[in-house]
Specification:
The protein is an alpha+beta fold and 263 residues long. It has helices spanning 20-25, 43-136, 159-168, 179-185; strands at residues 143-145, 148-152, 172-173, 191-196, 205-206, 231-234, 244-247, 254-260. The longest helix has 94 residues, at 43-136. The chain starts with 19 loop residues before the first helix and ends with a strand. It binds methyl 2-acetamido-2-deoxy-alpha-D-glucopyranoside and calcium ion.
């Protein structure tokens, strides 16, 4: 702080009192006590200024803190809302995933079943085609069974005439040499088959000369009633597979012829 001092020259003569000294000293200019605009601030004014600045700073800090609090409070609330929405979406997705997985398992099971069905149908189709081909290999009006052709008569003849008719057709009375064949013909009643013991009583032979190995006699047969029963019929009264009976050859019955398929 500069003090404006006006220097005044005082001549002092010893022994002589200069009465004008006081008036002269009073002429020394002192700086003004109060600060006016444009002049240098005092210490107190500095303190006041600093206090005001600190107050403003505190207010600013308070304001910034409040703004940041409001801002982050809103942001956190938004994040929480989004988090809750995501949790719900995840739950929905998990439920959908389980549903889709179950549907997939069901479809796989259905697919396997259908695949098995298709395989079964293909097998049936193949056997149908084979049967159809086989049917084409039999003459008109003949039945096809297991690669052979069979004629089942509508009229009735005795056993010998039946065999003659079969021969005329290029066949013989049926020779039953499998269970399937016997089962197939069990549906017919009182029908001549190609089995006889005419040549030797009690020794049954097929018309092609082969001996009888597997037989399907009805219970109690053959009994050769009256000593005259040399020809064999399917009687089928019992409804079982064992349905052969020996009977006198002169009886007139339906008959079954058997022959190979056509080439
Ligand atoms: O027609 C002859 C026939 O008569 C009976 O059957 C209906 C005999 N059955 C019994 O005696 C059980 C057959 O053996 C015989 O061939
Ligand atoms: Ca008999």
């Amino acid at each position: 702080m500069a003090v404006d001092i006006q220097l005044v020259t005082i001549k002092h003569t010893p022994g002589k009192r200069d009465t004008s000294d006081r008036s002269r000293i009073s002429k020394i200019k002192m700086p003004p006590r109060s600060h006016h605009f444009g002049s240098e601030p005092t210490g107190r004014q500095y303190y006041r200024l600093a206090t005001v600045c600190l107050g403003i700073l505190c207010l600013l800090l308070l304001l910034i803190t409040a703004v940041l609090y409001v801002y982050y409070e809103g942001a956190i609330s938004d994040i929480e809302k989004k988090h809750n929405i995501l949790i719900k979406e995840r739950h929905v997705l998990q439920t959908n995933y389980i549903t889709v997985r179950n549907e997939r398992d069901q479809l796989q099971t259905n697919y396997s079943t259908k695949l098995a069905d298709v395989s079964q149908l293909q097998e049936k189709y193949s056997s149908c085609i084979a049967l159809k081909k086989q049917e084409h290999r039999c003459p008109m009006g003949w039945k096809s069974f297991d690669l052979k052709c069979y004629y089942i008569s509508e009229s009735k003849k005795n056993w010998m005439e039946s065999q003659v008719d079969c021969r005329q057709k290029g066949a013989d009375l049926v020779v039953i040499d499998s269970k399937a064949e016997q089962t197939f013909f069990s549906q017919y009643q009182r029908t001549w088959i190609g089995l006889t013991d005419k040549k030797q009583e009690g020794v049954f032979k097929w018309v092609d000369g082969t001996p009888l190995t597997t037989s399907y006699w009805m219970n109690g047969e053959p009994n050769d009633v009256g000593g005259n029963e040399d020809c064999v019929e399917i009687i089928n009264y019992s409804g079982t597979i064992a349905n052969w009976n020996d009977r006198p050859c002169y009886y007139e019955e339906k008959w079954i012829c058997e022959r190979e398929g056509l080439d």
